[in-house]
Amino acid sequence: MSVYLLRRLIQAALVMLAMSVIVFIGVYAIGDPVEILISPDADQMERARAIAALGLDKPLWQQYLSFLGNALRGDLGRSFVFNEPALKLIGQRAPATLELAFAAMFLAILVGLPLGLYAGLRPDGVGAKAIMAGSILGFSLPTFWVGLMLIMVFAVQLGWLPSTGRGETVEILGLRWSFLTMDGLAHMAMPALNLALFKISLVIRLTRAGVRETMLMDFVKFARAKGLSPRRVIGVHVFKNILIPVVTVTGLELGSTIAFSVVTESVFAWPGMGKLIIDSINVLDRPVIVAYLMSIVLMFIIINLVVDLLYSVLDPRVRLESK
Amino acid sequence: MSATTAAPAPIPAKAPRVETPLQRFISEFAESNIALGALIVFLCIVLIAVFAPWIAPQNPYDLAQLDIMDGRMEPGTVGGAGFTYWLGTDDQGRDMLSGIMYGLRISLVVGAGSAIVAAIVGASLGMLAAYAGGRTDTIIMRLVDLQLSFPTILSALMILAFLGKGITNVVIALIVVEWAYYARTVRGTALVERRREYIEAAQCLALPTRRIIFRHLLPNCMPPLIVVATIQIARAIALEATLSFLGLGVPITEPSLGLLIANGYEYMLSGKYWISFYPGIALLITIVSINLVGDHLRDVLNPRLKK
């Protein structure tokens, strides 16, 4: 196990290193940093001095090494727009994105699991067909458009929910959260539902497939033959078995939910990391772009690592194959 | 079913009615009414997009035809130019129906174009990985794994952050995001197919490798490739719309459906829903019809589901 762990850790570090090279080359070598970092009013002398100060006269590999060294110390440069350390900005915005993503995942399970269970138990019923058609729609609907339509219906026409922003926040552990106030929850309802839509469809399909497979298993027949009530057979025997794949996939999807929150945050002006990166790309605030990409890549690598490790704990075959 | 679906087979003489693979494929596809309907809808959309300049009531990019006085008119109002704006107008006084028809062109060209290039790149690399094996295979598949472990929107954002905004860069981003799906699919199929007897026979005939790959291996890897391509075109159209909505895609002068929707965003809050609503419906119909066709193609082309 420890050999496997070590090997996966080394792999993760290598991927991180490779991504840092890609991001560095992408942001600093393809675009001309001089254009962006130095004010256009500067004269020739000032330009030369600034280039030397930024280390841009050195060969590329030296520049990369100093970038890497700074990155390891948690210094990814200062935002041109906010004039604050880029990583600090990301850190300030992260709680908003994280709570939105977790709320969406929670909604996905809360809505998707019962619907999938129903569709799996009565696959030929009208209700099941409607649920499955709905899930195809959920896969096909463009997220940003659904967001706009939600705003139109619930904020503009019905006036039930606020259309944009994060609402009132509560400070806990130095970070600001909005899921603990009623106003915050009202602000979060639409973005969370919007972000959850795709995942709800996914959970419905997974649950339905799982239920249909499990219902044919011998242990279900046995439980029935034993005379257990249908409620107990489904609630305990079937449910436990479909929960494993559903939970794993939902966990895996957390990363993509955070990435896709870019869209939802832009629609609802939710002040998270996603809104920050879009604004930064629009004004070419490169340090923030780099900081966002590096931190989200790191997060993905960690999520993948944790999922792999969980698999190897749950499923001994994975461990054997890697030897 | 061996997949010479692409090649139109010569029609056999009448006496023994032997179905060619293409005919069998068509009759199997037509079994599902939903898929057939979706295909017809999709073809209509393509026709509308192709013939937009001739059937649209107005050229939405010809400023001379626009009347700013007609801005933000409700669907069904008759404008100053004397014709009815069935789907309303946007803030520039542009007829939304015409805007959607022209927007469809851009969405379809970007979506289909990037999917085709990505298919060629991905299929070639997948084929190479399967046929060469060894280290080449490992390197290509590691790249595929790396690409697929990040969500599409993140990779696309990364590329647009590097290259900047613009339609060419969106196409590049879509290709980079999509190639891995094709590569993985083709490699998987090719690995199975290359162990078949007909490849062995071709090798025994000492045919050149290139000929074996392109004339023997590739045609038999087509069915899954076609299915992936269908689904990927829909995904590319959706992703392009998303990127354009975020303001990273097509320029304002040539709005795709995504940008049309984005344009209506600010008017949404004052209840002028139609600027965003109708382009979204057009996008939705396009994506759903492609997905339904792709879903059914998967069933028809999957040999494991054969009766």
Automatic annotation (TrEMBL), chain A:
Known Gene3D superfamilies for this protein?
MetI-like
| GO biological process terms, semicolon-separated | transmembrane transport
**Which residue ranges does UniProt annotate as crossing the membrane?**
12-31, 100-121, 133-156, 185-207, 242-269, 289-314
Q: How does it sit in the membrane?
A: Multi-pass membrane protein
Where the record annotates domain ABC transmembrane type-1, the positions are 94-311
Q: Name one GO cellular component term.
A: plasma membrane
| The entry's keywords | Cell membrane, Membrane, Transmembrane, Transmembrane helix, Transport
Q: Which CDD domains match?
A: TM_PBP2 (cd06261)
Q: Where in the cell is it found?
A: Cell membrane
In terms of superkingdom, the source organism counts as Bacteria
Q: What InterPro entries does the record point to?
A: BPD_transp_1_N, MetI-like, MetI-like_sf
Q: Which family would the database say this protein is a member of?
A: Belongs to the binding-protein-dependent transport system permease family.
- The entry's protein name is Peptide/nickel transport system permease protein
From what organism does this protein derive? Answer: Muricoccus roseus
TrEMBL record, chain B:
The record's PROSITE patterns line, in alphabetical order, gives: ABC_TM1 (PS50928)
What residue ranges are annotated as transmembrane?
Answer: 34-56, 106-133, 153-177, 225-253, 273-294
Q: Where in the cell is it found?
A: Cell membrane
Query: Is this entry keyworded Membrane?
Result: yes
Instruction: Give the record's GO CC terms.
Output: plasma membrane
Alphabetical UniProt keywords: Cell membrane, Membrane, Transmembrane, Transmembrane helix, Transport
Where is each ABC transmembrane type-1 domain found?
104-294
Enumerate the Gene Ontology biological process terms.
transmembrane transport
What membrane topology is given?
Multi-pass membrane protein
Origin, by domain of life? Bacteria
Q: Which Pfam families match?
A: BPD_transp_1 (PF00528), OppC_N (PF12911)
* Protein family (similarity comment): Belongs to the binding-protein-dependent transport system permease family.
Name the record gives this protein: Peptide/nickel transport system permease protein
